[in-house]
What we know:
With about 400 residues, this protein is mainly alpha-helical. About 60% of the residues lie in helices and about 5% in strands. It has three domains: about 1-115, Fumarase C, Chain B, domain 1; about 120-220 and about 235-370, Fumarase C, Chain A, domain 2, CATH 1.20.200; about 375-403, no CATH class.
Amino acid sequence: MTGAKRNNKSVAMKLWEKGYRLNRQVEDFTVGDDYILDQKLTKYDALASIAHAKMLGKVGILNKDEVQKLVIELNNIIELDKQGKFKIVKEQEDCHTAIENHLTKELGDLGKKIHTARSRNDQVLTALRLYYKEELNDCKELVNGLIAAIKRFTGKYGKIELPGYTHTRKAMPSSISMWGNAFIDSMQDNLKAVNFALELIDQSPLGTGAGYGIPLKIDRDYTAKLLGFKKSQKNPIYTQNSRGKFESTILHALTQIMFDLNKIATDLILFSMPEFGYFELPEEFCTGSSIMPQKKNPDVLELLRAKYHILVSYEIQIKNITSNLISGYNRDLQLTKGPMMKGLEMTKQSLAIMTLIFTDLKGNKENCSRALTKDIYAAEKVYALVKRGMPFREAFKTISEEY
C-alpha cells in the first residue's frame, strides 16, 4: 500500500514525463480530442495489457504473483470502463497513460513494470486493431441483418412488376424482386470486401515497440495467440507504416456498403414520390414541414444518401494524412482515429436504419401496374419478331417505327 499512496499524486503523469511542465496551449493542441476518443479503446488496451503481462511472465520478466495481480487489476479496469466509471483526463492524453497510471496507483512499483518491452506506438496499434476487428464483425452482422430484411420484403412484394429505367427514362419491365435482389447480391460482395479488410488487419503489432523492435527476448507469437490474432506482423517498420494503409482499406470496404445504401435511398426517395408511388414509406419514418402542413418528408433517406459522401471524405482524410510521411511513427497518425471511429459508427447506424426501413416498407401494386405503359414492352416485341426468323436489325427498325 505504501507504493500506492506514494503514487496517488502521479495519477495524471504522462508516459513520456521528463520533469518539466508542458505549455498548456501546446498540450491542448497536441492532445486534441484523443483522450475522449480513447474511451472507446480502454477495454482493448486493457485486454492487450493482460496478454502482455502474461507474456512478460512467460519470459521471466515478471513472476507469477505479479502477473496475477496485474491481470486482476486490468480486468477491474475493464469492468469499471463497462460501468462508465473509468475516465481519461486530458492531462493523461490517452487510455494507455490512464491505464498505467491506474495500475501504478493501485499496485505501486508493479504498475510501473507493465510498460516493459513495448511502446505507446505498438500499444495503440494493438488496441485499434482489436477494436477494428470487433467493429467490422458487428458491421458484418448488420449487413446480414439487412440482407434478411430485404429478402423478407421481396418475399412479400417481389412479384410486383414495375418499370426499369435507363437514362432516368422507362426502359424495360422489372420487378421488386429483381430490384431487391440486386442489393442482396451487392451486399454479399460487400461482405467479401469487409472480410478482406479483416484478414489484412488480423496481424498483431504488439512487441514491435516504436517501430524498430525491442532489445529484449520476448514472445510476440504468444501475445498474438492470446489476443486472437492470426499471426504477428513481423517487420517493425512496416507495422508503423501500415497505420493509415489498413485504416483506408477498412474505410474503402465500408464505402462499398454505404454506396449501396446511398443508391437504395435515392431509389426510394424518387419512387415513393406521389407522382410514382411504387413504394410507400411508413408515416412514422417521415418528418413534416414547419410551414407546409401537407408535407411528409423522407429526411431519413436523404441523410442516409448524404452519409455515403461523408464516409468517402473520411477515407480521403486518412489517405491524405498518412501520405508523404517518412517511414516510422509520426504524430500525424493520431488524427486518423477520429475519422475511423466516426466512419465505423456511421456505417453501423446507417445499416440499422436501412434494415428498419425495409421492415415496414410497402410495394404498391396498383401504381406499379399503372406505370407499365405499352412502350416498355418494345424490346420484347423486337425479340418476338426475331423468334419468327426476322434479323434483329430489321426487327428493331420495324418496332421503332411504332414509336
